[in-house]
Amino acid sequence: MSENRFSTRPLYLQLREALLERIAAGQWKAGNAIPNEADLARDFGVSPGTMRKALDLLEAQRVLTRRQGRGTFINDQNSAEMAQRYNKLRGPDGRPVVVEPEVGPIGEAAATEQEVRRLGLEPQARVYRFTRTYFREHRAFMMDEVVVPAAIFPGLEKQREVATDVVTLAQRYGLLTGSAAERITTGPADAIRAGIFNVAPGAPLLNFDRVVFELNGLPLEWRLGYCHLSSGYYLAALG
Amino acid sequence: MSENRFSTRPLYLQLREALLERIAAGQWKAGNAIPNEADLARDFGVSPGTMRKALDLLEAQRVLTRRQGRGTFINDQNSAEMAQRYNKLRGPDGRPVVVEPEVGPIGEAAATEQEVRRLGLEPQARVYRFTRTYFREHRAFMMDEVVVPAAIFPGLEKQREVATDVVTLAQRYGLLTGSAAERITTGPADAIRAGIFNVAPGAPLLNFDRVVFELNGLPLEWRLGYCHLSSGYYLAALG
DNA sequence: AAGTGGTCTAGACCACTCA
DNA sequence: GAGTGGTCTAGACCACTTG
């Protein structure tokens, strides 16, 4: 840390980055405990209070979990809980609807103007496009049209099994997901989707338009979703 | 604070309560600055770091706003920004849709079983019920069916002008709103609502089911909303 | 009993705002 | 330049978990 002492950025933010680098480098493995905060503070040559502030930040960002009496653990991004963190669909009983999509073929193309805007890309940047179809009891009830920057996920077309959700996808490329913004509208099912979902044309669907960002704000995925929610609901938590 | 020193509750949480009491008592007025954190710490006989933790908590809960170099201010719950804090409707341009509802007559009755469950009431508890209708360019586009516990808002039937939103309502009764949970579904407009919104029967509506809680978790309002969103969207922020 | 994170203390110095 | 919140230090003690 000492070489950064004269930086204008708060020390605890620099510590956060340094800790993230150690995680990305694989020095600490998911699910395992990292050293206690006193040792970490000594390692980095900072006061325990400052180290604590960095660790608390990473816990708020769902990178770490701290448990009194036990230790500080790196969250496993492959766990069901983490992989489904952006899934807000709930059944009639209020429990998460576990979704296991089927991923369609992955194509590569130049980004449209809208994709450039939503994903913060350079004009003509390359993107991968694919669809996901979600089933429940062998019936499709949701489908996604997904766009991701090719520069961030090189070689994705050979990695279809990794594209089931953006958390798993990011993790495979050494990235951690942060916040996301979802725009929700409703509209009638067109003929194609009515067929896929086995509902009458014109039946109301929930439509989603979501961008998921990396921890530092880099856009990772833009998704348009169409959902036939026969029972249950979408759960939004308001601050 | 000293009489509470032996309580098992963390000191900074007790400080938070004490500060809230001073605000509720009107000792400090909305929009005004409160004493600086060093003075407050001396007043309450605690260390500055502990007082800071309490103040930071209240800022996160939108009770205070802290500004470096200026001071710590009590948020004005009557401000447009605060009153609309649970309104997640956005126009095509992404800006909040300002809504000014018309409040219908307020009736009193015994709570239904469902109302008892959603609002955490005793069986047979009294509730107030009323509707809100939202207009844009002289056309209705949303309506709410609202239920609130009569015990929390006594005399509300004579206070219709205060029931435009739950933040204003709570403020008038000396309460501060905290978190809320909104369940979103979609469904076809029935004949009545199709008429009110001037759309075809069966047209897709966004349906909301929201409970807003007081800062300490007490349920304040249960609302069923029906919305014809011709343009724009509902914005959900995902952690 | 040993080890962990959670709370709390009592300061110092810095960055920002405003008269 | 005076006053504010933001950062940082260097500890102490407590509550909780585990061997």
Q: Spell out the CATH superfamily of the largest domain in chain A.
A: Chorismate lyase-like
Number of helices of chain A: 7
SSE run of chain A:
HEHHEEHEEEHEEHEHEEE
Q: In the CATH hierarchy, what is the class of the largest domain in chain A?
A: Alpha Beta
As a percent range, the share of helical residues of chain A equals 25-40%
Described by strand count, sense and barrel closure, the largest sheet of chain A is:
7 strands, antiparallel
Task: Name the quaternary structure.
Answer: homodimer
Mean model confidence by pLDDT of chain A: 94
Q: If you compute it from the alpha carbons, what radius of gyration of chain A comes out, rounded to the nearest whole angstrom?
A: 20 Å
Classify the fold: give the CATH topology of the largest domain in chain A: Chorismate lyase
Under the CATH scheme, the architecture of the largest domain in chain A is: 3-Layer(aba) Sandwich
Count of the domains of chain A:
2
**What is the SS-derived class of chain A?**
alpha+beta
List the uncertain runs of chain A: 1-6
Structure summary, number of beta strands of chain A: 12
Span between termini of chain A: 35 Å
- How much strand of chain A? 25-35%
Shape of chain A: globular
Largest binding interface between chains:
A-B, 32 and 32 residues
Describe this structure in words.
The structure is a homodimer of 239-residue chains. Chain A is of the alpha+beta class and 239 residues long. Chain A has seven helices and twelve strands. In chain A, strands 5, 6, 7, 8, 9, 10 and 11 form a seven-stranded antiparallel sheet that branches. In chain A, α1 (11-24) packs across α3 (48-60) and α2 crosses α3 (48-60). Chains A and B meet through β9, β10 and β12 of A and β9, β10 and β12 of B.
